[in-house]
Amino acid sequence: MKIEAGDFVRFHYVGRFENGEVFDTSYEDTAKENEIYVEEREYGPLEVHVGAGEIIPGLDEALIGMEVGEKKSITVPPEKAYGMPNSELIIDVPVSEFTQAGLEPVEGLYVMTDSGIAKIREVGEETVKLDFNHPLAGKTLIFEVEIVGIEKEEKQSH
Question: Is pLDDT above 90 for 155?
Answer without folding.
Answer: no
